[in-house]
Backbone:
């Protein structure tokens, strides 16, 4: 790999400080015991109510540098928030907890908003160069119930979209039976919100498009996906482009391919087939917008940031599964609409080990995100050879020894 200049960044400074001090949810919020459906505590993660209070606190103490707005409601009426910082003409959109049992991204966003809203010279430089928009805990119903999907029935979808009463079956991503990831969906059905996106941002649900399938676009039938779509469209109208979109997730327990080393974080910039190739010809209308090389540059910036310190606590960063064709994901939809896209998948979900490793994983997300932000501000991300992406180690479901 070619060498890139090393710069003194806000991300590096925040990391050094965080490694010397314990990570904790601010004491202004009492630690509540959240009910959940597995044996691991998740009380260290903030609730929706706590998050709302902290957002308002950050907005107030930032003296207006951070602007908080309610941009929608979940199916059960919980507010969906957007927090915006910066005035630059390049836009970064970051969302978290689209799956309700994937919680570290929200914690990282809160820490970053606190930092980016302060009056330091470095934060001001970032604000001058970029407009950063955060959508934390965007599936608040799922988050409060500690489940992957939202809390919504097919009957409620049909009530909102009466034309779907003629659909042959509910959406394929709807679950109303059995147990998935330790949660009983027969009692509280829901949709995987991250399969409810459509590259046609003005799409209106049609009965002939149901039940659909994994490799087909979604429908914007959930209020959570609609909120994300509406924020994205609003930014397009204001700026003409959303330069970067980042989706913060968790995965199960994975390994570096060919080893027994457990992965800390998987990343990726590939979610649909390239419209400029034969395989991606069905997306031809988006080929002028799609920018896979920029997505690869962004991912290399993350990889370098997480591996740039000696004895890094964030070792074993890998590429998530490649060759995907998932236009119904937020990442696939926004990639086709011109955004450089980045997936974060930190190890484990709440049913794997609850809040264990919370501090390290939150800081890994922060450090990776600052790799993007700092690289955009100093210009280094644009100098990266996209082919370096292909040298990042791959993720494996199984350890090389086959033991657990």
Residues:
């Amino acid at each position: 790999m070619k060498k890139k200049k090393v710069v003194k960044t806000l991300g590096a400074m925040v990391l050094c400080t965080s490694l010397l001090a314990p990570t904790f949810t601010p004491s202004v919020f009492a630690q509540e015991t959240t009910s959940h459906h597995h044996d691991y505590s998740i009380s260290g993660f903030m609730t929706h109510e706590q998050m709302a209070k902290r957002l308002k606190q950050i907005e107030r103490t930032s003296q207006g540098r951070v602007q908080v707005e309610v941009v929608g409601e979940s199916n059960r009426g919980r507010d969906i928030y957007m927090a915006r910082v910066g005035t630059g003409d390049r836009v970064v959109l970051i969302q978290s907890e689209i799956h309700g049992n994937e919680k570290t991204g929200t914690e990282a966003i809160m820490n970053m908003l606190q930092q980016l809203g302060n009056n330091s010279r470095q934060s001001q430089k970032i604000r001058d160069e970029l407009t950063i928009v955060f959508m934390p805990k965007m599936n608040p119903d799922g988050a409060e119930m500690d489940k992957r999907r939202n809390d919504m029935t097919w009957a409620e979808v049909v009530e909102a979209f009466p034309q779907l009463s003629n659909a042959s079956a509910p959406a394929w991503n709807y679950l109303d039976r059995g147990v998935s990831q330790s949660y009983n969906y027969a009692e509280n059905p829901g949709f995987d919100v991250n399969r409810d996106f459509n590259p046609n941002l003005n799409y209106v649900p049609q009965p002939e498009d149901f039940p659909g399938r994994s490799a087909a676009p979604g429908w914007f039938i959930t209020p959570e996906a609609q909120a994300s779509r509406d924020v994205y469209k609003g930014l397009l109208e204001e700026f003409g482009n959303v330069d970067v979109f980042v989706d913060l997730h968790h995965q199960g327990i994975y390994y570096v391919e060919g080893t027994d080393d457990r992965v800390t974080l998987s990343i990726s910039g590939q979610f649909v087939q390239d419209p400029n190739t034969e395989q991606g010809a069905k997306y031809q209308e988006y080929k002028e917008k799609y920018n896979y090389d920029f997505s690869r540059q962004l991912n290399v910036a993350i990889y370098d940031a997480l591996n740039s310190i000696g004895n890094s606590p964030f070792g074993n960063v890998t590429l998530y599964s490649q060759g995907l064709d998932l236009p119904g994901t937020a990442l696939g939809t926004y990639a086709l609409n011109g955004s450089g896209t980045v997936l974060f998948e930190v190890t484990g979900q709440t049913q794997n080990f609850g809040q264990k490793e919370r501090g390290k994983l939150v800081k890994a997300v922060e450090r990776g995100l600052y790799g993007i932000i700092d690289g955009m501000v100093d210009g280094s991300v644009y100098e990266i050879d996209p082919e370096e992406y292909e040298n990042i180690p791959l993720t494996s479901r199984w350890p090389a020894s086959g033991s657990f």
